[in-house]
Amino acid sequence: MTQNIKQSTKYLGMRNGDLSGKAYAKYWNAQMAPLPNAAVEAICRGPMAPVLFTGLDEAKLLTDQNSDKVENGFALTPDGGLLIAINTEMPGSTPEMVDWWFAWHSDEPERYKLWHPKAHVHARWEDGKTASDYKNPQSIYVGRTSIVDEYVGSELGTYAIQFIDPKELELDKRTLESQSSTAICARVGFAGFPINFGYLIHHVIKTASGSVMRSRFWVGPPFATARPGNSWAAPMVEIAKMVKAPNESNARNLLVHCAEEMAHLASFLPALYKEFA
Q: Does residue 243 fall inside a structural domain?
């Protein structure tokens, strides 16, 4: 006797027919390049002194490329926080391309899978709208939430990536423009829960050969906040601040994940942008 089991709509990799009729199908590449040397060195070095990293309350200093004493590494803070800095070289890419990518990638889960074939499972915009409902790339993602299923290390999680205006973290728009740069900023939390557990910034600066992405993460109990629109969640935030803090394994996994996905994105973004933007 056979039993008909409904196939899950969320799974790692591509199945037959997933890319049928999708003009971007040729950009699917399940083979990823080795981990960039900067990430390997950061992992081998191990935890660093937290004071070497830019604090969340100092995020505006990231527009000064000389402000960070650490460009690739991680730290565990005494109060249970996790700090990560990782840079990714993106030859041939521009900050405009990266802005466009963050606007484009969550319209379909297959697009999200292009980004990290070995970790990304599913993505959708929480409001159900698509890029065609908006006028320009930043208006497409800023102020919206992408619900993503992905592996960070061996753990599968469902996260709410809430993109915010850089000014909320005191990054000056005029300075970003004068640098020919952009900053993708977001609060991060578990989908289905009214609290956030961290922040991220991807500061993308134009260079002679393309761009460099300077990714920064602040994660853990010290950065727990109630999700906007859920002020009643304040008691849960206090509980969250007492839960188990991220450990060294969590730090390595997140650093590796970011380094892999951004390096892989850089391998096809210029061509994808040229064809679809």
A: yes
